[in-house]
Write a sequence for this structure.
């Protein structure tokens, strides 16, 4: 018991970090209605700025030179945009702190003016994608400006490893943990007082509760939003600087997940609530380590995962039971939802796509055939996003984890306890089911898990659902996917994939003749699966169910008034989407010799969502385009030939900017709808009566031609 | 307004293409170090050329050997150099001759020797460009100054993948399609997915940093670097037999490779040592969630509780550098008194700059690279050649241990391929090249102190030829390393690898 108490107390250090970050998330949400997934990245940039200044006296502005120094450009030696400023040798700690906080404020302003102000009237999904884009941009620009080396900043003041430990109950706890606790409490109290007692705070609260009303009273919602972005970013920067002695700056990017838990604990509106929530999460997580160390801990419950998962599960429950009380931060007007047109001529489109795929699979040499299947797999998975996010409007970030659940379940159900390959370290003992049954079982399990995860969607929606499903990603990974008791010894590392055989035909991607992952039967199997699922999704959209989905997406109350069972419709959407994700997961596993939990990480899922959004998340064509764009897919590999000399971090940064602009401009309709619009424009031009010349062409006709036309018309 | 929208849409499409590139940038299939690109531009700025940066190695190469013959005659071969095939391995003397008397550029008209590499880059969660850069610098140096492989230039083709299994398997397919003379594996978190394709294609493989069990036990792979196989069993032996600790806390990473390495190269070895020395010590593993600061203080509390009553406790770190720093800080902050032993993965500027690092024992191989005063003449020469190559052909970014390893592996590959060619082995035949490595009894690893015997590899670790490890004691930030209690000889794990295989074998299915 004594050890548990000591561990709980020790948790106030990390808890303090989560509390500070959580408070910042609440501030940003109240100011602009955005849940900022980039909040941890802002903290990371501030921490790097602090360390870089102390180490080298340099400050890096949060961008890169648009004319980089490679290729022939290197010879030009052009530097158009200043990136690095040298502030002198050995600057003082307090100057470094001040510059780091100023940098945070500057990033906050940039985020507001360049991203979230243009997105202020965008649908929720657009804001989510915008903040994911900012997170990806900042992560990339950190790699460009600060490199990948580990940092060794020992901190400053009491926030350092040098402070003598505090003895409590015979245990010793770092003194800086208590300083972090105090900092979190002081910051939380200061922000609370700011909102409670100042004119700025009152106007923010007014805009938070009713933006139209605040505007009518003469407050500028955009000024309020900008000021809150600055405040939120400064809080993130402070957290980064104060905690840098305990971790690597790059890792702050990931701390947004527990910080979101803290913010939700505060109902997304209460800074003191978020502060308390953050502290509780840190304390509970630390206590979980102690409990998991006990001999009585059940083997079926992954000890390492529980401490991360329990607080998040509690949050999910809280949200479910009080979801209707959570604030929905509105804006003066909300942009329309992205169009979700019916897919006409499905069979023709299908025939063309299948024909092209078959043609390509026969033309391609080994490595390109594998690249083709990567695109096909991504397309298949993105169909699940089209159904759930595009048609039904439920922003779920958990779908890729469900694919992982299916992949691991399939390996377990099909395993027979023998080594698949001679050098496999882990051997799966399983049910030895025939592969079609194992696949079916895996899809059913993924569907059931998807339905369970979808239950909170009955009470909450929009960005809060995104947060809950993000929590579910962590929970699924730690409790289910990495569970060696449930999913086999390799669940924590690599689980060998049994060689799949359907009705006597081997359908795995690993070609036993060439040893490449290019087996034609797998490609054919995948083309068949993509085709069938694609047709099913298109038909879903065209049928009554698709119309119900769109009605729920547009307005749940109106849909209910029209006689649609909203709950049933939502659960059906989750079920169908999860089943599709499960099919993709099984076929994903068929492609690889082994599956690993790392394959289904939260960031991999976010990247797929981003590509689906870029392609067009409301259409079949969007999923196909998204599939072409993914890392390792056809477009990427083709264009990669031309970008081989450019640092990956630069390209990632530019790509993130592209994602943000896409969110602002297309509102989720993506490239597919742009192409459709262009196509319609061209078709409309072609359909014009060719005998009627457009006005401008009349001007170019010669007198003789005009005379001839007139005579012809008279005849 | 309409026109603005059009511009925005145009921008969107342009940036969409950027995003394609973003995706593929992390799946660079390019032969970015293609010798064809590099030889012409850099050929005249060679390591031993006329340019300023090359003056230092030239001095080293011309002057130091003479000193060496005077000071350490026992290492001097008949030729009067600083190396001896009998000591450093077959080809060491030839290597010395080449680097001290460079023959000039390779013959571009000859068929190139293709060497491929795959490497993880571009992800915030893992990126090791320095591996590629180190090997590339060596390849360029070989082509520009050292005459290639008997005149044939090295064509170095790199396939970079992000943390994406599809990209990784694409890279494996590309390597198999390329059918190189030799493949050097960088750091890749998807090795188990890649080996069936690469080794299945009959391609000989040298590893830089083996981390998965399949890196240790896959026939056809050769590692002149020890990775977990020398560092962790060596660490166990060091803690039990050299430090004589009575309580050993083993902090291991809760990642995929960390979990595999713990299960295969730590758990079994501590159990083995406990079986051999009943009651002499107790040990326990403490999983650390990599990159998560939440658990550090609690782990330290558990370690402190585990140490209760112990007189000579020690903590072994088998984790990555960023986590080493975190746990080290937590141990220090909590005032836990114990000897701290770290594997080489913790040897990082951030860790060594931590005030709590004073007195820690850090793993390594051979000599202490940070102590030139302890180097012998062979080491001076090898380090100078490496530094000069990295200066001339490497990146502007700081050098790192991984960069040095990759450089040395490429140089070792060059020596081995040339020796094979000279002795009549067909270096265009993968099986022959693999056979050469597998049967090498005195393999020269550039900058390594001793020749490696690949024929004595334990059956469970058939790929790993490097079976030596050492520990150096760090005096603290700004200080220096000294040899630890095991002295210059360090710990040889050959025997314990065999003993564990017999008494605590790896679990086998059916």
């Amino acid at each position: 018991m004594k050890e548990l108490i000591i561990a709980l107390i020790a948790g106030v250090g990390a808890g303090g970090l989560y509390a500070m970050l959580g408070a910042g998330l609440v501030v940003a949400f109240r100011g602009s209605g955005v849940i900022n997934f980039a909040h941890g990245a802002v903290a990371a940039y501030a921490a790097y700025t602090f360390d870089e200044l102390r180490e080298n006296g340099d400050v890096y502005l949060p961008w890169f030179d648009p004319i980089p120094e490679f290729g022939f450009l290197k010879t030009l030696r052009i530097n158009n945009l200043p990136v690095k400023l040298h502030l002198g040798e050995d600057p003082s700690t307090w100057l470094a702190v001040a510059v780091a906080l100023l940098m945070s404020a500057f990033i906050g302003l940039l985020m507001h003016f360049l991203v979230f102000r243009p997105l202020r009237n965008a649908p929720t999904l657009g804001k989510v994608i915008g903040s994911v884009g900012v997170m990806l941009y900042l992560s990339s620009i950190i790699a460009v400006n600060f490199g990948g080396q580990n940092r060794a900043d020992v901190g400053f003041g009491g926030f350092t490893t040098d402070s003598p430990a505090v003895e409590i109950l015979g245990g010793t706890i770092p003194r800086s943990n208590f300083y972090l606790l105090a900092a979190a409490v002081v910051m939380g109290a200061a922000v609370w007082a700011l909102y409670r007692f100042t004119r700025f705070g009152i106007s923010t609260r007014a805009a938070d509760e009713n933006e139209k009303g605040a505007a009518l009273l003469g407050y500028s919602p955009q000024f309020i939003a900008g000021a809150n972005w600055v405040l939120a970013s400064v809080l993130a920067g402070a957290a980064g600087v104060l905690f840098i002695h305990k971790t690597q700056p790059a890792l702050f990017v990931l701390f947004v997940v527990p910080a979101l838990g803290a913010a939700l604990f505060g109902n997304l509106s209460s800074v003191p609530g978020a502060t308390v929530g953050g502290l509780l999460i840190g304390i509970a997580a630390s206590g979980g380590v102690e409990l998991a160390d006990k001999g009585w801990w059940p083997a079926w419950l992954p000890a390492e995962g529980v401490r991360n998962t329990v607080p998040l599960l509690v949050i999910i429950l809280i949200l479910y039971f009080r979801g209707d009380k959570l604030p929905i931060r509105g804006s003066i007007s909300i942009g329309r939802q992205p169009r979700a047109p019916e897919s006409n001529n499905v069979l023709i489109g299908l025939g063309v796509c299948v024909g092209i795929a078959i043609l390509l699979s026969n033309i391609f040499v080994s490595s390109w055939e594998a690249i083709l299947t990567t695109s096909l797999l991504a397309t298949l998975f993105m169909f699940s996003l089209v159904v759930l996010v595009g048609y039904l409007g439920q922003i779920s970030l958990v779908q890729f984890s469900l694919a992982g659940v299916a992949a691991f379940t399939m390996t377990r159900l099909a395993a027979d306890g023998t080594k698949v390959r001679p050098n496999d370290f882990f051997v799966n003992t399983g049910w030895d089911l025939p592969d079609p049954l194992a696949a079916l079982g895996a899809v059913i399990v993924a569907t059931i898990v998807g339905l369970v995860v979808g239950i909170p969607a009955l009470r909450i929606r929009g960005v809060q659902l995104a947060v809950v499903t993000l929590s579910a990603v962590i929970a699924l990974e730690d409790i289910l996917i990495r569970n060696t008791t449930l999913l086999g010894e390799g669940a924590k590392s690599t689980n060998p994939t049994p060689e799949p055989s359907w009705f006597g035909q081997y359908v795995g991607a690993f070609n036993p003749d060439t040893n490449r992952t290019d087996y034609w039967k797998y490609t054919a199997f995948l083309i068949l699966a993509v085709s069938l699922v694609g047709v099913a999704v298109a038909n879903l959209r065209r049928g009554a169910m698709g119309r119900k989905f769109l009605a729920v997406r547009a307005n749940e109350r109106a849909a209910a008034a029209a006689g649609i069972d909203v709950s049933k419709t939502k659960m059906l959407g989750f079920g169908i989407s999860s089943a599709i994700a499960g099919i993709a997961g099984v076929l994903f596993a068929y492609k690889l010799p082994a599956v690993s939990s790392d394959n289904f990480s939260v960031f991999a899922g976010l990247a797929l969502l981003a590509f689906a959004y870029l392609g067009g998340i409301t259409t079949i064509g969007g999923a196909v385009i998204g599939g072409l764009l993914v890392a390792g897919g056809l477009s990427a590999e083709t264009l990669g030939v031309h970008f081989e000399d450019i640092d990956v971090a630069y390209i990632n940064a530019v790509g993130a900017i592209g994602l943000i602009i896409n969110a602002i401009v297309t509102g989720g309709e993506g490239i597919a709808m742009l192409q459709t619009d262009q196509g319609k424009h061209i078709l409309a031009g072609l359909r014009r009566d060719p005998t009627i010349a457009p006005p401008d062409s009349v001007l170019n006709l010669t007198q003789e031609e005009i005379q001839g036309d007139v005579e012809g018309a008279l005849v | 307004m309409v026109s603005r929208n059009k511009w925005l849409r145009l921008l969107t499409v342009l940036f969409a293409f950027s995003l394609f590139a973003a995706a593929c940038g992390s799946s660079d299939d390019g032969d970015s170090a293609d010798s064809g690109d590099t030889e012409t531009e850099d050929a005249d700025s060679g390591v031993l050329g006329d340019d300023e940066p090359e003056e230092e190695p030239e001095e080293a190469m011309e002057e130091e050997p003479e000193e060496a013959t005077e000071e350490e005659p026992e290492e001097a071969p008949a030729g009067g150099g600083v190396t001896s095939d009998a000591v450093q391995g077959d080809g060491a003397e030839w290597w010395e001759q080449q680097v001290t008397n460079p023959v000039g550029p390779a013959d571009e008209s000859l068929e190139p020797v293709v060497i491929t590499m795959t490497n993880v880059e571009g992800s915030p969660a893992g990126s090791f460009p320095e591996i590629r850069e180190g090997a590339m610098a060596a390849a360029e140096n070989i082509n520009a100054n050292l005459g290639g492989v008997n005149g044939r230039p090295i064509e170095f083709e790199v396939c970079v993948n992000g943390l994406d299994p599809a990209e990784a398997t694409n890279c494996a397919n590309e390597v198999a399609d390329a059918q190189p003379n030799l493949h050097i594996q960088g750091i890749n978190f998807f090795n188990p997915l890649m080996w069936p394709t690469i080794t299945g294609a009959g391609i000989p493989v040298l590893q830089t940093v083996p981390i998965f069990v399949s890196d240790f036990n896959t026939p056809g792979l050769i590692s002149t670097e020890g990775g977990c196989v020398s560092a962790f069993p060596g660490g166990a032996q060091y803690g039990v037999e050299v430090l004589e600790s009575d309580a050993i806390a083993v902090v291991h990473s809760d990642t995929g490779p960390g979990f595999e390495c713990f299960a295969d190269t730590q758990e079994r070895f501590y159990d083995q040592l406990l079986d051999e020395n009943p009651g002499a010590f107790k040990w326990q593993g403490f999983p650390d969630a990599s990159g998560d600061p939440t658990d550090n203080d609690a782990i330290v509390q558990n370690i402190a509780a585990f140490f209760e009553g112990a007189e000579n406790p020690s903590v072994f770190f088998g984790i990555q550098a960023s986590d080493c720093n975190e746990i080290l800080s937590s141990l220090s902050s909590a005032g836990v008194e114990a000897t701290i032993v770290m594997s080489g993965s913790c040897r990082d500027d951030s860790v060594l700059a931590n005030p709590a690092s004073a007195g820690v024992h850090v793993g390594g191989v051979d000599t202490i690279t940070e102590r030139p005063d302890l180097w012998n003449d062979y080491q001076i020469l090898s380090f100078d050649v490496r530094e000069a190559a990295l200066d001339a052909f490497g990146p502007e970014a700081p050098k790192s241990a991984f960069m040095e390893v990759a450089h040395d592996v490429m140089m070792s590959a060059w020596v081995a391929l040339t020796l094979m060619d000279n002795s009549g082995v067909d270096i265009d035949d993968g099986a022959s090249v693999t056979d050469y490595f597998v049967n090498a009894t005195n393999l020269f690893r550039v900058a390594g102190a001793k020749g490696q015997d690949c024929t004595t590899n334990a059956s469970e670790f058939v790929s790993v030829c490097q079976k030596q490890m050492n520990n150096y004691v760090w005096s603290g930030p700004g200080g220096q390393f000294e040899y630890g209690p095991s002295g210059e000889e360090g710990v040889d794990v050959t025997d314990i690898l065999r003993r564990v295989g017999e008494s605590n074998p790896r679990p086998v299915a059916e």
User: Anything to note?
Assistant: Residues 366-391 of chain A form the longest helix (26 residues). Chain A has three domains: 2-325, 383-601, 677-714.
